[in-house]
Amino acid sequence: MIEKKFNLKVYFFILLFALILPLAAKVVYMLLSGQVTYENNEKVPFVLAAVISVLTILVCSTYALSLITLLKQVICHKNSAFKLDENGIYDTVCAVMFLAFVIVVPIKHIPFSSVTYTDSDEDSIYIRMKTKEVNAGRTAKIILAIMGYHFCYSFTSKKLTEDEIITISGLCKNCID
């Protein structure tokens, strides 16, 4: 069984999201209560304040969900980025950033039988899979279908060794052939 732990980047994102959320709540409160003014002391129109507030809430809702997912991964799965055995990949996450949105979603199990494509270099591996066989939520399946899975590449404390990459590639190739 191969298991990789998260590096300090995950804790940085947890801290960042935990600090941003109360500040964003304060900004929304100030906008909606009329405390924000233009340079000439004229209040920002309520419609504009409402639009900015809705956009802030939308972006920060992804931060809140990502914070919860990362905390759960660190606490419940003992800081494990992923676990891997001959049946597949277990208890991992997939992250995507789009504009200001950051979405981190949990993935319970990616069976090697679902893998349709692999690509590797000296310190990383990338897989694509049939998402119908993946045990994850709808959002995670959409992200996996579009982006594939990178084995938490930049978030692991120790990168995959050549032997581990060869082992993973072998397990995936057995299912593809």
Which tags fit this structure?
177 residues, alpha+beta, 5-stranded antiparallel sheet, two-stranded antiparallel sheet, 4 helices, 7 strands, 46% helix
Provide structural commentary.
A hairpin with a 2-residue loop joins strand 2 and strand 3. The radius of gyration is 20 Å and the shape is elongated. With 177 residues, it is an alpha+beta fold. The model has no long low-confidence stretch (mean pLDDT 84). The protein contains four helices and seven strands, in the order E-H-H-E-E-E-E-E-E-H-H.
> Taking all residues together, what is the mean pLDDT?
84
* Gap from first CA to last CA: 23 Å
Question: What is the C-alpha radius of gyration, as a whole number of Å?
Answer: 20 Å
Q: Sketch the major β-sheet.
A: 5 strands, antiparallel
SSE string: EHHEEEEEEHH
Unreliably modeled segments = none
* Count of alpha/pi helices: 4
Structural class: alpha+beta
Content of β-strand: 25-35%
| Proportion of helical residues | 40-55%
**Quick one: how many beta strands?**
7
Backbone shape: elongated
Brief characterization of the structure:
With 177 residues, the protein is α+β, with helices and mostly antiparallel strands. The protein has helices spanning 8-32, 46-76, 138-147, 162-176; strands at residues 2-5, 80-85, 88-98, 101-111, 115-120, 125-129, 135-136.
